[in-house]
Amino acid sequence: MIIGYGIDLQEISAVQAAVDKHPRFPQRILTEEEMVRYRELPTKRRLAYLAGRWAAKEAFSKAMGTGIGTLGFLDIEILSDRLGAPYVSRSPFEGKVWVSISHSGNFAQASVILEENHESKQ
């Protein structure tokens, strides 16, 4: 059963402004594992990656019903599988997490669905 849904839209130019003002801004948003991928990316791709992870973590916190504040950005880790699909590798949620991140122009959008675990009882 779905128990939470969240969506977020982030302007990439706002992320650029935050990084320009606070050069350590990515470390406030990204976990150590996410930072590894961030540093591997070409400079042009980094802002889109950061904005996408920010949007996904905001969407996750909305799905939890708390928003960022109760949950911190570093409480949630979103990595990519071998095909590039994002997945939540660490979070305070015990069930299944479905995450999608999209980029278009100056925007990154993410949606998160939280589903409770169902274990077959046969």
From TrEMBL:
InterPro entries hit by this protein: 4-PPantetheinyl_Trfase_dom, 4-PPantetheinyl_Trfase_dom_sf, ACPS, Ppantetheine-prot_Trfase_dom
Signal sequence coordinates: none
Cofactor requirements of the protein: Mg(2+)
GO molecular function, one term: magnesium ion binding
Catalytic activity: apo-[ACP] + CoA = holo-[ACP] + adenosine 3',5'-bisphosphate + H(+)
Broad class of the protein's primary localization: cytoplasm
Gene Ontology cellular component annotations, sorted alphabetically: cytoplasm
Residues bound to Mg(2+): 8, 58
This protein's UniProt keywords: Cytoplasm, Fatty acid biosynthesis, Fatty acid metabolism, Lipid biosynthesis, Lipid metabolism, Magnesium, Metal-binding, Transferase
EC number, as in UniProt: 2.7.8.7
Pfam families to which the protein is assigned, alphabetical: ACPS
Enzyme class: transferase
Matches recorded under SUPFAM superfamilies: 4'-phosphopantetheinyl transferase
Localization in the cell: Cytoplasm
Domain 4'-phosphopantetheinyl transferase: 6-98
GO annotation terms (biological process): fatty acid biosynthetic process
Gene3D superfamilies: 4'-phosphopantetheinyl transferase domain
Function comment: Transfers the 4'-phosphopantetheine moiety from coenzyme A to a Ser of acyl-carrier-protein.
Annotated family: Belongs to the P-Pant transferase superfamily. AcpS family.
Protein name: Holo-[acyl-carrier-protein] synthase
Organism: Streptococcus suis
